[in-house]
Write a structure and sequence with these properties.
It is built from 11 helices and 8 strands. By secondary structure, it is of the alpha/beta class. The structure holds cytidine-5'-monophosphate.
Amino acid sequence: MADDRLIVALDVHSMEDMQALVEQLGNSVSYYKVGMELFYRAGANALSYLHEKNKRIFLDLKLHDIPNTVAEGLCSLAALHADMMNVHALGGYEMMKTAVQKVREHAGRANIPAPKLIAVTILTSISSDTWQEMGFSQKISDEVLRLALLAKKAGMDGVVASPQEASIIRAECGSDFLIVTPGIRPAGANIDDQSRIATPAAALKNGATHLVIGRPIRAAANPKAAAEAILHEMERA
Ligand code: C5P
């Protein structure tokens, strides 16, 4: 089902703006991403609202710290009804492994469903020039694959990666590994600050399980029509 696989990014600053967008998209969209922009302002209220509306939630806070701090932070967040949460794979193997173990133990003790945990590989906004400027010389796609394999070994449920890297991750990490891809732009859409992008159909064909899409829907003259056009493209793909 395409609508289980489209995640609309609620990159807005207030509850009011979030509610307006969710109302506008109505039954067309059932999965939303709450990121830093909204969570730092509205906190748990944003997730409670979506949970009450029976929407699925990806809490995208990209935790990156020492293993104990990340794991305990995730345990604090686990009560907020998110279906999926994430950390940076660059936090390393121990960080990811500790996160998986502690969150599962915590969910078991609290008798709540354990959220899926995924690892951000390399941000989709990083271009080869930016990558070199940061001091790295290997290919971005090689590093993305290395981090995806490390995430899998640590027990993570999947990764966030660019749609351009989804096919190598799918080939190496197996069929049940989640591949969540931002950097989605329908043909002809504004690229904004993204770099390693693909269309919704190409991302699915490359093996993405979930597409995270923000501005192409949020900034459209008619967000509901934009979401439905994307869902239609996904169904055809
Ligand atoms: O507006 P746009 O479709 O570019 O939004 C993409 C969303 O995905 C943003 O909320 C951004 O934070 C998120 N994201 C990303 N690249 C990653 C991880 C998350 O663009 N690697």
